[in-house]
Amino acid sequence: MDEMAVEFLHELNVPFFKVGSGDTNNFPYLKTTAEKGRPMLVSSGMQSMETMRRVYQTVKEHNPNFAILQCTSAYPLEAEDVNLRVLAEYQKEFPDIPIGYSGHESGISITLAAVAMGAKVVERHVTLDKTWKGSDHEASLVPSELTELVHSIRLVERAMGTGIKTMLPCEKPCHDKLGKSVVAKVKIPRGTVLTLDMLTVKVAEPMGVAAEDIFQLVGRTVTEDMEEDDSVLPEVVEGYCKKRKC
């Protein structure tokens, strides 16, 4: 694409400009395109990180609304040449813009991996027949694959979650059935100061002190008699409820 094409597309009021890898190091063209103020997607096939830093600086000066796409310019692209780890490098280098992936590999698996690694934009080519003349057709998706890709991306997006590790509501039935808590390993008379060898962890009913808190019971006094395998309930351990706010 050249400056004349940019003017033509701008007059057509296209929603965004796509800069192909072959034009990415054409800085006058980049500047002209960025000055139009439309969103931009910039592929990075055949470029170095140093060139991409210059691309970022050039576009950013005129237009903050753009994304850089990791791309390897080969058709079809072999898995060992995809270099998905560049996504993480771009995310570190350019943290204030979206990073995406432009793929020319067969199938959809690698593109899905890119989404799981944080790609916010994906580009794949589409064909009606992979046997048509031209290397791009072989590296493209047929419509059914495109449908599967979109569906699978939405599934991955749902699966990404919040990044906050906690027990989820959906896990409660499993926890109620299999979750372990602290029980008496031996008979423990009222007034006994607990030691670790008096305690063990089992599936118990009712559920007692959480298994992960067993060490916090050591040195505390029990306020009721306990039989072997009795659940160690928080309220029968002196000072435990106050510490745990139970």
Automatic annotation (TrEMBL):
Subcellular location: Secreted
Domain AFP-like residues, every copy: 181-240
Keyword tags: Antifreeze protein, Secreted
Biological-process GO terms, alphabetical: carbohydrate biosynthetic process
SMART domains associated with the record: SAF
Main location as per UniProt: secreted
PROSITE patterns the record matches: AFP_LIKE
Keyword Secreted appears in the UniProt entry: yes
GO cellular component: extracellular region
GO MF terms, alphabetically ordered: N-acylneuraminate-9-phosphate synthase activity
Assigned protein family: Belongs to the type-III AFP family.
Function according to Swiss-Prot or TrEMBL: Contributes to protect fish blood from freezing at subzero sea water temperatures. Lowers the blood freezing point. Binds to nascent ice crystals and prevents further growth.
Official protein name in the record: Ice-structuring protein
